[in-house]
Specification:
The chain has 314 residues and is of the alpha/beta class. The chain is built from 11 helices and 9 strands. The protein has helices spanning 22-41, 63-74, 96-106, 119-126, 142-156, 174-184, 202-210, 221-227, 244-250, 258-264, 292-310, and strands at 52-57, 78-81, 109-114, 131-136, 163-167, 189-193, 215-218, 230-233, 269-271. The strands form 2 sheets. It has a 5-stranded parallel sheet, with helices on both faces. The chain has a 4-stranded parallel sheet with strand order 2-1-3-4, with helices on both faces. Helix 5 (142-156) packs across helix 11 (292-310). The radius of gyration is 19 Å and the shape is globular. The relative contact order is 0.16. The protein binds phosphoric acid mono(formamide)ester. Residues 61-64, 135, 144, 273-275 line the site of phosphoric acid mono(formamide)ester (CP). Residues 61-64, 135, 144, 273-275 line the site of phosphoric acid mono(formamide)ester.
């Protein structure tokens, strides 16, 4: 990973939750909040005029890729995209490192998503320009986790001392793998709600416990929801299963609908990185605590902040 300057993100890669201190997270949220306020007054904040972002997405994406592209353009910069693999020299067998070395000749910063865990680091090691991880396999999704923390701060007016239920595919879910590490810095307590086959990896559970966080693993969503301030739902990711029979056993394990929330008899904030399949019924969308559409909008402000900070513009 590139080192950059002490106490600043200038020149650094954004690869993993473990690179962030509480102070770093607060600094990113402060810049995102400034951009959010400024964007209400004007459509463009031209800090990145003359700079180019490359988006290299080797896995499907709607929110991450488009919000990165919107963020760069809202900052007055330009974007070039690698596009589908079959339209690039990756289809001729070019390595990830060589693809990134090529792109680094044309652009100033790279946002990458790739199915292989560790691929964002591999990209970052190959080039001198900042690389931002937009999701590496079942590993990490740091920009998502930062926008999740930003959303919690806005919705709950704090991220400290909350109880958060993480629900669904905790085994393969890179969003929860990353978010739990960030929230542990803010003294949050966790319920990990999943079928036995999709439990949070033991090394992550033990790491957040070592950080002092309280973690309870359960299969009982109602019990966890009754105790929680925030429910973070995730999709059971069919594409991560080697054996589809295993997917069939766990799909639809947890579904939140309006009746479930009414029965709960308390207010709760509901987040989801999206896309959803059936784990949040559309009848929840009008529930005041359903924050998942506001959450995806926040992705633009956080990604603007990260782009401006790694380029030394903030
Ligand atoms: N949350 C998220 O990563 O969404 P996309 O897969 O659409 O980018």
């Amino acid at each position: 990973m590139k080192e950059g300057n002490m106490g600043s993100l200038k020149g650094k890669d954004i690869l993993h939750a473990n690179q962030f201190s509480k102070k770093d997270i607060e600094a990113v949220m402060k810049v995102a909040s400034e951009f959010e306020k400024e964007l209400k007054k004007k459509g463009v904040i031209p800090l990145m005029k003359g700079k180019l972002l490359a988006t290299l997405f080797f896995e499907p994406s709607t929110r991450t890729r488009l919000s990165f592209e919107a963020a760069m353009q809202r900052l007055g910069g330009g974007v070039i995209a690698l596009g589908p693999v079959e339209g690039s020299s990756v289809s001729k067998g070019e390595s990830l490192a060589d693809t990134c070395r090529t792109v680094a000749q044309y652009t100033d910063v790279i946002a990458i998503r790739h199915p292989k865990t560790g691929s964002a680091k591999e990209a970052a090691d190959a080039v001198d320009i900042p690389v931002i991880n937009g999701g590496d396999g079942t590993g990490q999704h740091p920009t998502q986790a930062l926008l999740d923390v930003y959303t919690i701060q806005k919705e709950m007016k704090t991220v400290k001392n909350l109880t958060v239920a993480m629900v669904g595919d905790l085994k393969y879910g890179r969003t929860v793998h990353t978010l739990v590490e960030l929230l542990a810095l803010f003294n949050c307590k966790f319920y990990f709600v999943s079928p036995g086959a999709l439990r949070m990896p033991e090394e992550i559970t033990s790491h957040v416990r070592q950080q002092g966080a309280s973690v309870e693993e359960t299969e009982d969503l109602r019990k966890a929801a009754l105790e929680s301030d925030v429910i973070y739902m995730t999709r059971i990711q069919k594409e991560r299963f080697q054996d589809l029979a295993e997917y069939e056993k766990v799909k639809g394990s947890y579904i939140i609908d309006a009746a479930f929330l009414k029965n709960l008899g308390k207010d709760v904030t509901i987040l989801h990185p999206l896309p959803r399949v059936n784990e949040i019924n559309p009848d929840v969308d009008s529930y005041p605590g359903a924050a998942y559409f506001r959450q995806m909008r926040n992705g633009v402000f956080i990604r603007m902040a990260l782009l401006a900070m790694v380029m030394g513009k903030k």
